[in-house]
Amino acid sequence: MDRPNYITPAGYAALRSEYDQLFATERPALVETIAWAAGNGDRSENGDYIYGRKRLREIDRRLGFLSRRMKAAKVVDPAQAPDRTRVYFGACVTIADEDDNHRHLTLVGDDEADAGKGLIGWNAPLARALRGATVGDLRRVTLPVGEKEYELIEITYPAA
C-alpha cells in the first residue's frame, strides 16, 4: 500500500464487527453445513456442498481483505483535529457549486465512503481538492462530468 489507510474510529469498529461476525458466526455454521453435505455421499451433484464450498471461498476472501485493511488502517479521530479552520480528515463541510447548489459532505476513510449519505472517501477527487481549504476558498475539481468549481461555505468537526 503506497498511502495510509486513514479511517475513523466508527469505520474501524464497523470493519472489526464485520470481520468478527463472518469469522465467529457465518464461517463455523457454513463449515458445519459443508461437513453434513459431504457426508451425504455424491458431492458432484450435491447443491449444499457445492454452494457451501463456493460461499466458504467468498467468506475467506472477504476475511483476508478485511484483515489486510484493518492491519493497514491508521485510526484518526476527527474530534482531535488541532486546526479546525482547515479541511482535514473527518471534516464535515458545506460546499456550493456555480449554480449555488449546496452539498453537505464528510471526509472519511475510503473503506467507509458512501456518497448517498454524504460520506466521501479521503482519496476521492473532490476530497483531494478540498484538503487544506478554508472557508471562502474556491476549489476546481475535475469530475467524470467535467470540471466544476466549488466554494467552501462551512467547516465543522465532531465534538470531542
Q: Helix and strand layout, with pairings?
A:
Layout: E1 5-7, H1 9-38, H2 47-72, E2 73-75, E3 92-96, E4 102-108, E5 119-121, H3 125-130, E6 138-143, E7 146-156
Parallel strand pairs: 1-2, 4-5
Antiparallel strand pairs: 3-4, 3-7, 6-7
Helix pairs in contact: 1-2
Structure description:
Residues 85-157 form the Transcription elongation factor GreA/GreB C-terminal domain. This is Transcription elongation factor GreB. One of its GO terms (molecular function) is RNA polymerase binding. It comes from Sphingomonas mucosissima. This protein has 160 residues and is of the alpha/beta class. The protein folds into two domains: 5-73, Orthogonal Bundle (Helix Hairpins), CATH 1.10.287.180; 78-156, Transcription elongation factor, GreA/GreB, C-terminal domain (Chitinase A, domain 3), CATH 3.10.50.30. It is built from three helices and seven strands; from the N terminus they run βααββββαββ. The chain has helices spanning 9-38, 47-72, 125-130, and strands at residues 5-7, 73-75, 92-96, 102-108, 119-121, 138-143, 146-156. The strands form two sheets. Strands 5-4-3-7-6 form a five-stranded mixed beta sheet. A two-stranded parallel ribbon has the order 1-2. It is elongated, with a radius of gyration of 22 Å. The two termini are 30 Å apart. The model has no long low-confidence stretch (mean pLDDT 91).
CATH architecture call of the largest domain: Roll
CATH class of the largest domain: Alpha Beta
**How many distinct folded domains?**
2
Q: Compute the average pLDDT.
A: 91
Q: What structural class do you assign from the helix and strand content?
A: alpha/beta
In CATH, the homologous superfamily of the largest domain goes by the name: Transcription elongation factor, GreA/GreB, C-terminal domain
CATH topological fold name of the largest domain: Chitinase A, domain 3
